[in-house]
From TrEMBL:
Pfam families: Peptidase_S51. The keyword Thylakoid does not apply. It comes from Gomphosphaeria aponina SAG 52.96 = DSM 107014. GO terms for molecular function: serine-type peptidase activity. Transmembrane segments: none annotated. This is Type 1 glutamine amidotransferase-like domain-containing protein. InterPro entries: Class_I_gatase-like, Peptidase_S51. PANTHER family: CYANOPHYCINASE. The lineage of its organism: Bacteria, Bacillati, Cyanobacteriota, Cyanophyceae, Oscillatoriophycideae. Gene3D superfamilies: 3.40.50.880.
Length: 337
């Protein structure tokens, strides 16, 4: 049993309405800057409706946050209760009380934070088994933002230090800070098999001097080079929300403007990288057609969609190619006519 402070549980609100015992499956991926975002309201309602007036649970590490309080304040009519559970050790992740709290969830939200902590503390524990049971058997809808979205992919990047920059991974796809690209024996999320995710694609600040579009290409290059061409990437700008229903239809919610709310669905185009070696620039050209990408700008109605069953049927966006000649050439894009 873990120490007294290894986990914390907080109930933000609870109603007297009877709880529906059968949630509806679904996945909500959030690009990383939720809060006061246009399009967030519609995406949140899409997600909480699937809880069927059930118990909403936020899962995180560290201290209890404000997500459950926020849901109570603005979306209390959609849920029976809202609570937060912080799990801070592998011992706590095997604690029977923790598992009881988790098993009751009818909607599960994995908060942002540090995906490396999630992997280190929860993988190969009863928490891992319970999340997989909830999602795949109970059909509990699951959402993740930032780090919480990262670990929902079949592959996930969990850096021990500062995340690798686009220029770093394109100049050296085996940069020292890419050692933690994992093939998941962790969470098994519907329609994200063979998918690596990335978030905050458009963020630029003092800690993030470059956008992450080139990083997305580099991460996919590593995955396909080591695991084959039949692998994918799903990457979001900060204001994008991707809602995946039980049939694999992915709708994109966002602010409806020209920047900051796009979702990108990346797939290979029949050729491995021409050069992918430690210490050498990544070359993935294939005559300017290395990776085929469908980009969808989110709007309030989730009008744009992508079919994750076949990675072909899509609406509301545009197809383009992403490629790189290597090194300082960086990521290049070309719209498919």
């Amino acid at each position: 049993m873990g120490g007294r402070n290894d986990f914390d549980y907080y109930v933000a609100c609870e109603s007297d309405r009877p709880k529906n015992c059968q949630p509806q499956g679904g996945v909500l991926l959030i690009g990383g800057a939720e809060g006061e975002k246009s399009g967030e309201n519609e995406a949140t309602r899409w997600f909480l409706e699937r809880a069927k007036n059930g118990k909403y649970l936020v899962l995180r590490t560290g201290r209890i946050g404000g997500q459950a309080d926020w849901v109570c304040k603005y979306y209390g009519d959609y849920i029976h209760s809202a609570a937060e559970l912080a799990i801070n050790s592998s011992q706590a992740a095997n604690n029977s009380r923790v598992i009881d709290y988790l098993q009751d969830a009818d909607a599960l939200f994995i908060a942002g934070g540090d995906q490396n902590e999630y992997q280190e503390l929860w993988e190969d524990t009863d928490v891992e088994d319970t999340i997989n049971y909830l999602v795949n058997e109970k059909k509990t809808p699951i959402a993740g933002t930032s780090a919480g979205m990262a670990i929902l992919g079949d592959y996930y990047y969990a850096p021990d230090h500062q995340g690798v920059l686009s220029s770093e991974i394109l100049n050296d796809p085996y940069h020292f800070n890419t050692e933690t690209i994992h093939k998941s024996n962790f969470l098994k999320i519907p329609f994200l098999e063979r998918v690596i995710t990335d978030t905050h694609l458009d963020r630029i600040n003092s800690q993030n001097p470059e956008t992450r579009y080139g990083r997305a290409l580099g991460l996919l290059a590593r995955v396909v080079n080591e695991n084959g061409l039949n692998n994918y990437a799903l990457c979001l700008e900060e204001g994008a929300f991707v809602a995946i229903d039980e049939n694999g239809k992915a709708q994109v919610f966002g602010n409806g403007t020209k920047t900051g709310q796009d979702a990108y669905f990346l797939q290979t185009n029949g050729a491995l990288p021409e050069q992918i070696l430690p210490g050498w620039p990544l070359v993935w050209d294939n005559e300017g057609k290395a990776v085929k990408v469908y980009s969808i700008p989110g709007d309030r109605h989730g009008s744009g969609y992508f079919n994750l069953n076949n990675w072909q049927d899509a609406h509301g966006g545009k197809w383009e190619y992403w490629f790189t000649f290597g090194g300082k050439s960086g990521l290049r894009k070309r719209i498919i006519d």
